[in-house]
Write a structure and sequence with these properties.
By secondary structure, the chain is of the alpha/beta class. Helix content is about 35%, strand content about 20%. Helix 1 packs across helix 16, helix 8 packs across helix 11 and helix 9 crosses helix 14. The longest helix has 18 residues. The protein is globular, with a radius of gyration of 23 Å. The two termini are about 10 Å apart. InterPro entries: Glyco_trans_1, GS/SS, Starch_synth_cat_dom.
Length: about 475
């Protein structure tokens, strides 16, 4: 079975969020199950591309509106990621440094999808399944079925994974002229509320759609930024499959990025040493419990609550250290700078994303805070558990599926309502547990024994592919 994963992110080439981690790991695990899994993403002017050897395996051209676009397919020679990687390069469209934030994103992703289909059709490539990830490639299933130039591919099965239903790729119908030729009688499959909506189109046209947790699938039936009715109507082909983590990369026992390696037996000493090194560097006290936040400064992640949470927390409890690693909303960032000044020596910040530092923070921290408004799956809590860092999470989406409160014989601290008071109460419970060495060791041991690797989830995707092919 040949499966092509189509995405605009893939770790370590181009990462903005969890989408990249999924696309960079799932195909590798599927290949261990005998699946010929490959990844196709846009070409980016990034270090990985410059540092690895690629060969051009195909080239072609197509019209997009009044433009004639040339494309090249670059294949990484060594399969260093554990699967074949292909990059689509289009001068002026797919040859940039950043993944997002350009004003012509709609044109970029239309070109990416058109070039992909043009390439596989004209080179006799007939995959069993095309697995599309998020709205950037949401038009693929529609174009396979109703694009006049891709009839030879019409029987190809498609799976579409919703990583975040809040972002849908809306574009004006004025962009319709840029699409590959299609049966115009089917225009309604592209439309949602007067706009071309790639996410809605994917849900309508794909053979199956998945979400990155069961909890998030159920939430989309209730609220999906206007598409909840569509998710309900198409519920028969919806599946919730929780993400996994790449335990070859996220594993404190073999992690080359952390200062002191450890396992579930040596976790106490290992964490102690990693904490000491991190705290010395950022002027924090290593003898206190360390609570961290890693993520985007976005309301979706509950980052706008961090200021209020930590002000309230410090008003009732001073014996702790806080580390915040992230970037995003400038207003949130400025409020966090105020926090750092207000609680100098107790709270440290790092603005931006640093992969090495992220590993070190997981290894050094005692708790990880995730006060999310929306969390389709969440990977941070899974990384944290692997490193014996106890998650403090809001009960939402994938967090609800993967973190069980210690009050229910679990291994984390969960709060229901989205407010600072409930978050502070959950943090307080974690600090109480931390103060009892025997209790804390039991919680940490339970956390590190959990298996959230991709093995189980990869099998579920393969089962879905087989079901569609039958």
């Amino acid at each position: 079975m040949e499966v092509i994963h189509l995405s605009v992110e893939c770790f370590p080439i181009a990462k903005v969020g969890g989408l990249a981690d999924v696309v960079g790991a799932l195909p590798k695990y599927q290949r261990t199950l005998g699946i010929d899994a490959k990844v196709v993403i846009p070409w980016f002017d990034r270090p990985f591309v410059k540092e690895h050897e690629f060969e051009i395996v195909a080239a072609g051209s197509f019209s997009q509106g009044s433009e004639e676009l040339q494309y090249e397919i670059h294949k990484e020679r060594s399969d260093v990621l554990g699967f074949p990687l292909f990059l689509i390069k289009i001068p002026g469209k797919l040859d940039r440094e950043e993944v997002y934030c350009y004003p012509d994103e709609a044109e970029q992703w239309i070109a990416f999808q058109h070039a992909f289909l043009h390439w596989i059709q004209n080179n006799g490539i007939h995959p069993s399944v095309i697995h599309c990830h998020d709205h950037h490639v949401g038009l693929i299933a529609f174009l396979l079925q109703h694009g006049t130039d891709f009839r030879e591919l019409a029987s190809t099965k498609t799976v579409f994974t919703v990583h975040n239903g809040q972002y849908q790729g809306w574009m004006s119908w004025s962009k319709g002229i840029l699409l590959p030729a299609f049966d115009t009688w089917k225009w309604g499959l592209l439309d949602w509320d007067g706009l071309i909506n790639p996410l809605a189109t994917a849900i309508k046209c794909s053979d199956a759609y998945t979400t990155v947790s069961d909890g998030y699938l159920n939430e989309l039936f209730i609220e999906a930024n206007g598409l909840q009715g569509l998710f309900n109507a198409e519920s028969a082909k919806g599946y919730g499959i929780v993400n996994g983590i790449d335990t070859a990369y996220w594993n404190p026992q073999v992690d080359a990025l952390i200062e002191k390696k450890y396992n579930k037996i040596t976790v106490h000493k290992g964490k102690e040493e990693n904490k000491r090194i991190l705290c010395e560097k950022y002027n924090l006290r290593p003898d206190l419990p360390l609570i961290s936040f890693i993520g985007r400064f976005a309301k979706e992640k509950g980052a706008d609550l961090l200021f209020e949470i930590f002000v309230k927390l410090f008003s009732i409890q001073e014996n702790m250290s806080i580390f915040i690693l992230g970037s995003g909303d400038k207003e949130i960032q400025n409020k966090l700078k105020e926090l750092e000044l207000k609680f100098e020596g107790k709270l440290a910040l790092f603005f931006g994303y640093d992969e090495v530092l992220a590993h070190q923070v997981y290894a050094a921290s005692d708790m990880l805070l995730m006060p999310s408004r929306i969390e389709p799956c969440g990977l941070n809590q899974l990384y944290a558990l692997k490193y014996g860092t106890i998650p403090i999470v809001r009960s939402i989406g994938g967090l609800k599926d993967t973190v069980v409160d210690v009050a229910n014989e679990g291994y984390g601290f969960v709060f229901e309502k989205l407010n600072a008071d409930d978050a502070v109460e959950a943090i307080g419970r974690s600090l109480d547990a931390y103060s009892d060495i025997k209790t804390w060791k039991g919680i940490r041991k339970k956390a590190m024994q959990l298996d959230f690797s991709w093995d189980r989830s990869a099998k579920k995707y393969v089962e879905l592919y087989n079901q569609l092919l039958k």
